Structures are given as C-alpha cells and as structure tokens.
Amino acid sequence: MARIGVLAVSDGRDHVHRRNTGFIRSKADEFTAALTAAGHDVVTGGLVATNTTATAAARSVAASSVDVTVLYYAVWAFPHFTMLAADATPGPLLLVASTDPTEPGLVGMLAAGGALDQIGRAHTRLWGAPSDPGLIAEVGAHASAAAAVGSLRGSTFGRFGGRPMGMNTAVANTDQWMRQFGVDVEEIDQYELVRRAEGPSAEAVSGRKWLEEHATVHYDGDRLTPELVERQLRLYLAVRDIAAERHLDFSGIKAQPELTEHFATADVAEALLNDPYDWNGPKAVHVTATEADMDGALTMQLMHRITGTPVLFADVRHYHPDRDVWDLCNSGQHATWFAARSEDPAENLAQVHLYPEVFFFPAGGASVQHIAAPGRMTLARLSRLDGEYRMQLVLGEFENYDARTTRELVSRSTPEWPHAFARLDVAAETFLSRFGANHVHAVPGDRRRELRVAAGLMGVRVEEWSR
Ligand SMILES: C[C@H](O)[C@@H](O)[C@@H](O)C(=O)CO
Questions:
Q1: I need a labelling partner for 431 at 20 to 30 A (CA). Which of 54, 116, 221, 458 fits?
Q2: Does the CB atom of residue 315 touch ligand 1 within 6 A?
Q3: Residue 1 — very low, low, confident or very high, per pLDDT cuts 50/70/90?
Q4: Whole-angstrom Cα distance, residue 44 to residue 271?
C-alpha cells in the first residue's frame, strides 16, 4: 500500500483554533485511522494553525517520502496556510473536507482549492464523512497511482534489440521518456542474449523438466525439441541475469526477425519474465514486452506497479462481430499466470500447451498457448498522437467458452498462440478507428480510477471509452 501524509488545516484566530482543536482532532483521527485500517502507511503532520507551522509541518511530512499529501479540512481554515503547505510539498496534493455541517469544512476546502487554482497548483478535491468507505477508497486509489508513477521515476527499461519489423509504435523517444516519466533506457544488443544462451545450463534443464511436468509439451522432433526448449529457457536466464547485473526494472525483447529466424523465439522467456514464478519458486514479475515495444512496456510497468500482478501483452488480432468479442492473441506468449490467475503455478500451467512455433518463426521453439481465465479486466495503452502521450482506456470482460466453441474460435486465427477472448465496453468501430497501436495490455479488475489518476500525474491525456 501507499504512504500518505495528512495535515489538518485550521483557523488562524487563536481563540477559534483553541475552541475547535478537539473537533478537528476527532475528525482527522477518524480519517487517519480509516486509512491505516485500509493498509496505508499514514504520516501525520499534526494541526496547522499558523503560517510557520504550515511550512514546517508540510516539509516534515514531505521528508518522509509520502506518495501523496492530504490537506484535511474539518473546519473553516485560513487558505494561505494551504498555499504555504502546498509550496513546501513537492508531491501530489489531495484536499479532503469533512462534510459535517456543524463546522464549515467544505468552505475551507473550496477557499483553499480556489487559491491553489489561482497559482495553477494541481490538486484533487474529495469530501465525505472521515471514514466513509468511498472516500477512503478514493484517497487510496490516488495514493497507489501516485506511488506507481513515482516508482517509474529513476527506473530503467532494458531494450534488447531495436525496432522490430519496422514497427514505429514500438519505439519511443528516450528524451521524452526521461523528461516526462523519469525513465532511462539501457540498450542491449541481442548478441548478448545469444552469447549467454549458447552454452549448456543445468538450470535450463531443470526448467525444461518443470515445464514438461506441469504443462503439456507437444514435441515434434523438428520445430519443438527438448534442446530448443532449453535454448529458450537459457534466453530467459540471460535476460534475468542481465536485468540483475544492470539493474533493469522492466524490459522488452525484439526477437523478430533475428532470434526467430536463427536462434529461437523469445516466447518462453517473455512468459516467464512476466510470471510471478518460475521453477525455482515465487519471484518478482519482470515486466517484459514482446517486440521490444517501449510504450507497451511502459504501460505494463505502470499497470503492474498499480496492481502488483502480471500484465497481459497481446496483439489485437481479431474481432468476432457475431459475438461482439475480440481475440487478443499475441504472437506466441501470454504470461502463464493468466491461464487460471492462480498463485499456484501448477494450476496455471495445467492449462498451458507448448506448441511448435508456426511458419513465421523458422528457428523454432515453443509458443506458450492457453486461454486467459474469465473475469473483469481493465485494458489500456499509452500511445502518442502527434508526439503527445495519451492513455487509451476501456473496461472489458474476458470470457471462456465450451471446448468446441473455443476450438472453433482459435482455429480462425492461430491456434498455437495464446488467446484472451474479450468483450470490450467500446464499439468495434471506435476502437479500430482510434486505437494507437497493435498491442494492448490488461490487468484484472476495474483499475480505471488509478489509471486515470496516474495519467493525470504523468501529464498524459486520457481517452476513455464506454458505450
Ligand atoms: C507474426 C508476426 O510476425 C507477429 O509478430 C505480428 O503479428 C505481431 O505480433 C505484431 O505485433
């Protein structure tokens, strides 16, 4: 959960402040207790009733590296205290008012908010009873979004290989990334992967046995052999080790066409990097985009930092108009976690088939096939319109069907690749006319609130669809 600073702003008249202290404390304490009960780490800056305490308290809260600072209004509060506190607060600001009408808390928030507007200081206003679950959830969403955005700053993206197959949407401007998101890009030649993945590896043998034990491997003696699976696993180990050595926070692998023509596909590596486990047990998700898709990876990393879960990377492959359902089908991998979304890898891998790679990829290896488990999902993608970032956002529902229908649907595209059948809250015409890339990303649940806030904090316009 996130770290939230709370300062309760008061009246600058000494006698009024003295009279109201108990009232403010009771509201602010109830508010902070509710935030703590929701799992947040709350840093309290006390009550602000003078100009000097406004600055000092805000500086002290900011020094605790809070993700967001709440200025709390239970009573009428002198607005210049808010202005001074805001000036001493570099991070995002929430103005929260108690709606108890015995004291003019709302008035205090509106006067303070108006003053911040006059100096162009961005803030969000919220109101309600101090422990109202809706209010606490909203503050929590702002805090997690701010924590996610903050965690991007100072992070490094590992770009293995460059632009794949002329895919402009996979390439972003590194200056823009640093300026807008604080993310650095480390370029790593795919030769380094090949060099490391060439020799034998006992660890890769263990990985192959684990996959053979828990998934269904369709060896064909040609495109898919135990040797090729081990080679794909050595690619995984190479990225894992390079990420550790160079302190990479998230990555992307070009693969096509060099690796896929002459070495092996990166599908097994990408699936396992995105998974929260491998044969050694639970591990951190290392967000990894297929085709070294930079904006895709950035979207995934943001979504991952909000949810803590793996993030789906998929091609928008087909729309079934008769069902109003999309086939989101990547060219060879979705993280295996999406197969059942279980914490137990065996439950997910029981749904996974490793098929010989199809004609696109003569070097062979396994594609990681499964059907994504059903449920509510949030789909998003950062893309650029005329150089400006925007976040396209829509709610969806992944669906599963009976075996015969599933077979029929997957056979219309590429059955050997993984599929997520998605009903999206947007007309196909709108999506196909406006979506800014070939890749889309998804996480479980309705996370639109956090993503909207995150986009705002990153200076990114949200283009949200619903019917
Ligand atoms: C088979 C192609 O080479 C695929 O890689 C292509 O459909 C994509 O995945 C594009 O995102």
A1: 458
A2: yes
A3: confident
A4: 42
| C-beta of 291 in contact with ligand 1 (< 6 A) | yes
* Under 8 Å between Cβ of 85 and 50: no
Strand order in the sheet with 93-98: 41-48, 3-9, 68-73, 93-98, 124-128
CB under 8 Å, gap of 24 or more: what pairs does 40-44 form? 40/1, 40/2, 40/3, 40/4, 40/140, 40/143, 41/1, 41/2, 41/3, 41/4, 42/3, 42/4, 42/5, 42/6, 43/3, 43/4, 43/5, 43/6, 44/5, 44/6, 44/7
For the chain, the straight-line distance linking the first and the last C-alpha, in angstroms and rounded, comes to 32
Q: Residues 80, 86, 89, CA angle at the centre, nearest 5°?
A: 150
Answer whether residue 444 shows pLDDT above 90. Answer: yes
How large a percentage of the chain has pLDDT more than 90?
Answer: 100
Query: How large is the greatest C-alpha to C-alpha distance in the chain, in angstroms?
Result: 87
CA distance 462 to 401: 33
